[in-house]
Every structure is written in C-alpha cells, then in structure tokens.
Specification:
Elements (H helix, E strand, L loop, with lengths): L3 E4 L3 H13 L4 E3 L4 E3 L5 H8 L6 E4 L2 H8 L10 E3 L3 H9 L9 E2 L9 H7 L9 E7 L5 H8 L3 E11 L5 H11 L3 E4 L3 H18 L6 H4 L1 H7 L2 E4 L2 H9 L5 E3 L4 H9 L3
Parallel strand pairs: 1-2, 1-9, 4-5, 4-7, 5-6, 7-8, 9-10, 10-11
Antiparallel strand pairs: 3-8
C-alpha cells in the first residue's frame, strides 16, 4: 500500500489536487491546516475595489485573495495590470474570466519560484515609481512585497480580503492527527504558517497527554512523530521553515501542481 498523501491546503484548493493525486493511485487525506473565512468588516476591501481603475497595478497574493475579491468585482478595468505569484492564482483568475488575452498578468519569470521575492524581480519597478499599487491578501502575511514596492517609489495600499486561522483542536482533529502520525505519509505543505500551526496543535496534544510526571521527550511525542514524516513543499522559504522546526525529510518541488505530482510519482 503506498503512503497516504496528506494535503494540508485550504479545502477550495485541496479538492482539485486530491483528484489528481488519486488518479496516480495514491490514497489521499484532506487535512486543511488553514481555515479561510469572511472578514468581519469587508468595507475597506469593497472601498479599495471600487477604485481599481486608479491603480497602475493590483497584486493578489493567493487564489483565496482572488476569489474573495472577485465576489465584489463586476468587471476588470481596462489598462490595470495584474500581478500574481503562481499558476494557482492564474487558474483562479481564469475562473473569473480574467486571462492574459484581455489583461496584462505578471508573475515570477521562473514558474518554479512563485514568491514575493521573485515577483519583485520580475516587475518593472521603475515604471511604478510614483504610481499607486494595491496588494490584496489575507488578514495577515509577509510585508516583503509592500516594502519592496515602497522602496522602489510606488504608493502602496494593502487591503485584506479574507480571514485565515489555524483550526481549533477538536476531538475529531485530535483523533485524525493521531491516526496519521501512526504511519508514514507524504505531507503536502504549501504554507509556512500552516506548518507552524500544525506543530502548535501537536504541542497542545503533547501538553494535554504529558503532565508533570513525564520526561521532556515523552511530552514532545506527537511533535517528534511529525518531525519524522516526509514533507513535500513548493518553496525554498517553506523548506527553510521546516528545517528550522526540526524536519529533515523534505522534498522541494518548485511551484505548481505538475511539479508536486511529479515528486509524488518519484516517491511512491
């Protein structure tokens, strides 16, 4: 029996990948480590989107940002350039009728490196000096893109489009994690935040099962069991986070589901 592939993306992005993984003959477990929800107040988002035509560039940091924003966008204004990080976001735009045939869409030149650093390298930053740029993202995230654009002289607005959070440690989730950690699996980790959240959940389990009488090693049982699992990650930044958190069995694929699927085929 091949190892189970544990897909930790939010559900909306996990389901299409799960179908393709099953087509390879691999068992799949969906374990969303980030929950995506609506903002308590979408007023700032709707206000920013109402003025899209005033921006030279609008950058979406994720497919979730695109889906949340396009709930309030009737049509994309002519002449406003788009920036995205990877193929998943291009697919999300196409689902909303926005394609390179009608809109200038910029993404990192190297498709295997879909992050803010490489997007900044691809953008014509000089052309954005003194011009307005909008970044649409979750309610938390890295400031690197905004800082880089501001350093180049752009006038940057950042607006949240959705809320993301680590799921609570329910009895059902606790049972699922115990079951998964009892065997070797391939864990698809596409977010450093999600990986940190997972270890926090496992540390909570260790604390609940530990008690003052037990040794430190015993108290870290679930964390240690997770550190022994095989992780498949798309970005060097996530691999660095994983290494810092004590993981040693890592496969770095580069961005895009095709590379991820190829890695799974080479690691039966």
């Amino acid at each position: 029996m091949p190892d189970t592939v544990v897909i930790t993306r939010p559900l909306a992005q996990a389901r299409p990948l799960a179908e393709r993984v099953r087509a390879l003959g691999r068992p799949v477990e969906l374990l969303p480590l980030l929950e995506i929800g609506e903002l308590a107040d979408s007023g700032p988002l709707r206000a920013a989107l109402a003025g899209l035509a005033d921006y030279a560039l609008v950058a979406f940091v994720s497919p979730n940002a695109i889906d949340a924003a396009f709930a309030h966008i009737a049509h994309w204004p002519a002449g406003v350039k788009l920036a995205v990080l990877g193929e998943g976001s291009r697919t999300a735009l196409a689902a909303h009728g926005v394609t390179p045939a009608e809109v200038d869409i910029v993404s990192p030149a190297d498709a295997s490196k879909s992050d803010s650093e490489h997007l900044l390298q691809t953008l014509d930053l000089a052309a954005l000096r003194g011009r307005r740029v909008l970044i649409v993202r979750g309610d938390s995230g890295r400031e690197l893109m905004a800082d880089g654009l501001r350093a180049a002289g752009a006038v940057v607005d950042v607006v949240p489009a959705y809320r993301r959070s680590v799921p609570p440690l329910t009895a059902a989730l606790r049972a699922t994690l115990r079951r998964l950690l009892a065997q070797a699996n391939d864990w698809v980790i596409t977010s450093s935040e999600a990986l940190r959240g997972l270890l926090a959940l496992l540390a909570e389990m260790d604390a609940a099962d530990g008690g003052t009488e037990k040794t430190d090693a015993t108290q870290q049982k679930y964390v240690v069991m997770m550190q022994q699992q095989h992780l498949i990650v798309p970005h060097a930044r996530i691999a660095e986070t994983a290494n810092n958190l004590g993981f040693t069995r890592l496969t770095l694929t580069g961005s895009g589901d095709e590379r991820l699927l190829a890695a799974l085929q080479s690691h039966p």
